[in-house]
Amino acid sequence: MIQLTNVHKRFQLNRSEIVAVDDVTLAIEEGEIFGVIGYSGAGKSTLIRLLNGLETPTSGSIMIHGQEMTTLKGAGLRNARQKISMIFQHFNLLWSRTVEENIMFPLEIAGVKKSARKQKVKELIDLVGLTGREQAYPSQLSGGQKQRVGIARALANDPEVLLCDEATSALDPETTNAILDLLTDINERLGLTIVLITHEMHVIRKICHRVAVMEAGQVVEAGNVLDVFQSPQADITKRFISQVTDTGDTDAAMAHLQEESPHGKLIKLAFIGERTEQPVLAELIRTFSIDVNIVQGNISTTRDGAYGTLVLQLVGDAAVIEEAIAFLDANEVKTEVLIHD
Ligand SMILES: Nc1ncnc2c1ncn2[C@@H]1O[C@H](COP(=O)(O)OP(=O)(O)OP(=O)(O)O)[C@@H](O)[C@H]1O
Questions:
Q1: What is the pLDDT of residues 186-197, one digit of tens each?
Q2: What sequence ranges are listed for the domain ABC transporter (predicted)?
Q3: How far does the centroid of ligand 1 lie from the alpha carbon of residue 66, in Å?
């Protein structure tokens, strides 16, 4: 439904050229929540601005609903843009207008009749959970409430795509979760496609179906959130995932264990969903005469299911440890050797 093909965006700055988006090819399906994650300067904002026509690519194609965005002009571009809404990190509300008037604003611009406007605003206020706050001004609202106004305003003209530019980055963790729940609810209820950019893996894990990881203007990895979390390929993806999985104590625990029993082998097991390693581990301990120390374990949930890791230290005869690892592999438990003796 949204297809970017070989998209480049270069900016000329004094005499140097900045490549903000470098040969990006991506397909975003209708009705999914698609996350783009990257550090500052990776090109995320430029990418999202290309989607709503605020920037035009230097080269490449951007098709939205079968329409080539890069060649649209005038009324055609305005119409296409009406189907694509955006919410922002700092909300971008009109401070002299009440909640109700802020949400009404895009309807006024679109020339919707007063009675229809009133009805629509009421529905939207209901949808985002702001009933009772209609007459408040933005300065009287909490950050989460301001973003709810931003979301209601973005939905006023019944868009097909909602772009979220770091929409929760200015909010505390609890409010972030409430806004992410609201976005999930809207996605499910309205079938709206959501494209969000963020530098927080927590946001991706909690609500996205698929994710693209950006670095230096390029998409270095993309896929289903569960798959990417389970087997990240790029180093940068691994770093992002460690934001949400590392306890911080693991390195210290591993170093300590290596000191205590330098001949052990540290391995990491990965598992998904309901499947549990317990029976396999019990059999491992029964069958092989090695010591098994649990260093760290965690389980995380994505919207498509749970995944987890377990770090073990295996101590004993090297050949028996190799057999034990082969046993785990044969039982389809994904293993990764972290430290050899
Ligand atoms: N209008 C512009 N003119 C010149 N350079 C730009 C412009 N917009 C973005 N850039 C540059 O393009 C690169 C990518 O910026 P972009 O804002 O897209 O990254 P980002 O991943 O969104 O980072 P951030 O989260 O900090 O905004 C940066 O080097 C930035 O300085």
A1: 999 999 999 999
A2: 2-241
A3: 28
Q: In Å, what is the CA distance from 125 to each residue of 133, 136, 157, 193, 242?
A: 9, 12, 14, 20, 37
Ligand 1 center to 40 CA (angstroms) = 8
* 57-104 pLDDT tens trace: 999 999 998 899 998 888 888 888 889 999 999 999 999 999 999 999
- Ligand 1 atom nearest 42 alpha carbon: 21
Query: For residues 57 and 21, is the Cβ–Cβ distance under 8 A?
Result: yes
Assigned architecture for domain 246-339? 2-Layer Sandwich (3.30)
165 lines ligand 1 (CB under 6 A): no
ipTM over 0.90: yes
The CA 46 to ligand 1 mean position distance, Å, reads 6
Span 2-232 CATH architecture: 3-Layer(aba) Sandwich (3.40)
For atom 1 of ligand 1, the residue with the nearest CA is 11
